[in-house]
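thoughts on both lines:
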Amino acid sequence: MGGIGKTALAVEAAHRARARGWFPGGTLFVDLRGYDDDPVTADQAVLALLDALGVRDRDLPPTTERQYDTYRALLAERRDRMLLILDNASDPSQYVPLLPGTDRHRVLITSRDRPDALPIRLIDLETLDPDDSVALVKRALHDSDERDDRPAREPDALRELTDLCGHLPLALQIAAGMLRRRRHRDISSLVADIRAAGDATAVLDQGSPGADLYGRSLVLRPVLEASYRRLPPDQARLLRLLCLAPGAETGTETVAALADVSTESVLSLLEDLAATHLVAPVRGGNGTASAVRWQLHDLVRGFGAVVVAGDAGLREEGEAARERVLGFYRRWADAADDRLRWLPGMKEPERFGDRGQALAWLDAERAGLVAAVEWGREERFANAAAGLAQCLGEYLDWRRYFDDWITVAEAAREAACLVGDRLVEAIAWDHLGLALGETDRAEEAIDAHTRARDLYRTSGDRHREGTAWNNLGLALYHAGRTEEAIAAHTRARDLYQAADDRHSEAMAWNNLGLALHHAGRTEEAIDANTHARDLYRTVGDRHREGTAWINLGIALWKTGRKKKAIKAYERSLQIFREFEDWYHLGLTLERLASAHEAPNQSAEARSAYLQAADAFTHANAPDRAAQARTRAAELRE
C-alpha cells in the first residue's frame, strides 16, 4: 500500500547490491509518478533513460519507435550487468516497454497494484512488526539527538504511538519528524493529540515535517486519496462501506450483506481491492468464498470513515449498510444461539447442523458481533443491536469471554434505555449480572440482578422474574450470603413450577443444591441435586445433567459416600468431554484429583490435576490452570 516503504526498500537493496559488486554496469532510477495526476508515460521515461545512458540532443532518434530500439540496443551491448529501478508505477503500460529485452540485466519495479497478469516475481510488503516500528522511531530520534531519552522514559507511549500509526513506515517517519520538532514535549502529548482527533492522518499531516530523502512530501492523506480516486465506482463504494464494518476483520458473507450484493460479486470486488493493497485477505480460511476474511489497515479505515462523514449522501449509504449488517448478524446469531440451546424435541435451527458449526461461526465473527452491538448507543440501531446482544449471552458464557459479555450487556442496556424498552433493559441487566459474577464482582452482580428482577416484576413477566431470582441467588452465593441465596433459588424454583417450566426448574434445583451444601445442609443438597439431575434427564439437557452430577458428587463426598461421589464425578467427566466443555471438565478433574489425594493415590491425583490444567488452558482460564499445575507439583514433592 502507499507509504509502506517500497521506494526506500528498493533503493536500499540497490545500494547494498552495488556495494557487493553485483551490478558493475551501474544503476538507473526512474520515478514514474504513477499515482500523481499526471503520471510519467513509458515514452517519457525512455527519454530520461537514454539521457542517462549518454544519448541526448542530436544523437536522440527522431521517433519514439527508434528511441526504444536504441534503448534496447544499448542495454544489449552492455556486457556489465545493470540494475534498472522503475519506481512508483501504477500500470504495466508504464514499465513493460522499458524492460531490457535481455536476461543479463535486472529490474526492480515498485507499485501499489499487483500485476497478476504478468509472469514476474512479486514481493508483497506488509506493515512493520510492532517491535521494528518502535526501533525505527527510536533510531530516528537518537540519530537526530543522542540525548533524546523520551523513548526510554516513555516506552508505553512510544508503543501506543506506533500502534496509532498502524506500523506504516510513512506514518512512523512523519511521527518521528514531529517528535523531533516537539523535542521539549513528551511522546504522550502526540499520542493524546491523535486520540483526541480520532484521525491519525489529520494530526500527522498537519504536523508533517516536509519532504523525505527522495524529495517526496511526507503526507498521508494525499497518498490514500490518490489510491482511492483511481478506483472504479463499485470498488470505491465497497471500500467506503468496508471502512464502516464492525471489527478488525470481516468475513466475505458479512461484506456481502454490508454492500447488498451476492457473495460471488463481492468476492470479485474484494480481490480487485486486494490487488491495489487497500484490502488484505486474512490467512487461515478453508478455501471457500464464505470462509475468507478481510481486513483494512487502520489508516485506510480512518480515511474512509472521514470520506463518508463528509458527504450527506455517503453517510446515508453507510447507515443503511450498517442496518443490513445488523440484520445479517441478528439472523445468524439467533440461529447459532438456538443451536447452542437446542434440546431434543425442539425445532431444528437454521443453517447450523450441530454445536460445532454454530460455535465456529460465532468464533469467526465474535469481534464484529461485539462491535455491532455497540452501535446500539445510536438510536437508529438501538433495537437491532439490543436484539443481537440477547443472542450472544450463551456463547460468550460458554467460551468464557466475560469482558466481551460485559461490553455487550452494557451496550444493550444503554440501547434499551434509549428506546424505552423496559423488558429488554431487564434482560440486559440480567446478562450483565451474570458476566460480572464470573469476574468476581459479586456485589455489582447482585445489584444488576436485583434491577432485572424489579423490572421483570414491573412488566408482569413472572417467568423471567424467576430467572432473575435464580441468577440473583448465584450472585448471593458467590458473595457468601448463603441463606439469602437459598431463599432466592427457592423463590425461583416456585415461580418455574408455577409456569410448568421443568427445564428452568432443574436449574433452580441445581443451584439450590449448591447453596444448601455450602450451608451445611448436605442431605437436602443431595436431594436437590438429584431432583436437578432427573429433571435435566427428562427434558434431554445432557450437558446440564453433567453439572448436576458434579454438584451431586460434591455433596456425596461431604457425607463420606466416596465411591458414589467418584462415580458421579466420572459421569460428569464423560458428559463434559462429549460437549468439549473444558472449564467444567477442569472443575470435575480437580474434584477427582482431590478425591485421590490419599497417600497411596498421589500419582492418580497428580495426573488428574495435570489434566485439569490442560482443560483450563483450553477453556481460557489461565489462573485456574496455574493453580492446578501448582497442586500437581506439590504432590510430586
In short: The first strand starts at residue 27 and ends at 31. The chain has 31 helices and six strands. The CA atoms of residues 378 and 415 lie 8 Å apart.
